[in-house]
Amino acid sequence: MLLSRFRVASAIAVAFVATACGEGSTTSTSDVESQSASPVATSSPPMTCGDPHAHVYSPDRLSLLVACVAVTGTIQSETPEADGDFHVRLRLDPDQTCAGQPCLNAGNISEQAGDLLLEPVCENPISQTDAVAACQGYHNQLVLPAVNSHVRVVGPFVLDLDHGWNEIHPLESATVIPASTPSEAPSPTASTAAAALFVKITSSSYGFVAATTVPSASCTAQAVLPSGRTSTAAGLQPTVMAGNDGNVSWTYNTSSTTKPGTGTHTVTCTLAGKTVSSSAPFTVA
């Protein structure tokens, strides 16, 4: 009887231990799925650039800043040029540099509406004589995405010495990518524009002064008459904010009794705490 009870107790103990061990060592299906679903790191597409002088006419007009860069942004315009290239304006996504350098300079701000210029070469019929040889026997197979496309572009980063703005030239690739937000592409940040702030008087005559600066700069004008007196004529007092083209101007009242001679216009512009001025003479007959 005692032996029988001992055998029953032993069997129960063995069953309990087996069950406990099974529960402790089992890995659930959900645990496996969770582990296999861990994110895998991805990298950007490879960035490769060829000869920065390939099929570029008069390559000495371009100063190479960085052999190969990649940036993202939204295409604003595409204009065919007489040299066979396209001029493509790219509104850059915020907080980007071109290999550690500012992508935009004063020329981009004032002449390209704050955009980076892209130039895919040998895309169009050529009517510019000195550009014919560069594209002889070659037609670029790059297909430009449509205006308003959000893209990643790759190519040599250069300074156009003839025009004074920065470019990607020649454009090696342009790939459509999802936009970060559905909203309109942002304008250049105030800090970027302020770093390139300038003012240049483009017209100066008695009763009128005009200048160009960076978009969104706030500007004032002053006229010092030949007598040395500062004019208080109506029309000079307003502070004018530059539009997207960077242009500002003032038309003010003149007087027939003003002393003849040479006066001076001064235009002062401010943006993000930075201020610059420019002066030009005018004549009172």
Can you walk me through this structure?
15% of the residues lie in helices and 34% in strands. It folds into 2 domains: 59-176, Beta Barrel (OB fold (Dihydrolipoamide Acetyltransferase, E2P)), CATH 2.40.50; 190-284, Immunoglobulin-like. It contains 4 helices and 13 strands. It has helices spanning 2-25, 29-36, 106-111, 190-195, and strands at residues 62-80, 86-92, 116-118, 150-160, 166-168, 173-176, 199-205, 208-213, 218-224, 240-241, 247-251, 261-271, 274-284. A hairpin with a 2-residue loop joins strand 12 (261-271) and strand 13 (274-284). It is elongated and about 70 Å long. The strands form 3 sheets. A 5-stranded mixed barrel has the order 1-2-3-5-4. The protein has a 4-stranded antiparallel sheet with strand order 10-9-12-13. It has a 3-stranded antiparallel sheet with strand order 7-8-11, with no helix packed on it. It is an alpha+beta fold.
SSE diagram, text form:
Blueprint: H1 2-25, H2 29-36, E1 62-80, E2 86-92, H3 106-111, E3 116-118, E4 150-160, E5 166-168, E6 173-176, H4 190-195, E7 199-205, E8 208-213, E9 218-224, E10 240-241, E11 247-251, E12 261-271, E13 274-284
Parallel strand pairs: 3-5
Antiparallel strand pairs: 1-2, 1-4, 2-3, 4-5, 4-6, 7-8, 8-11, 9-10, 9-12, 12-13
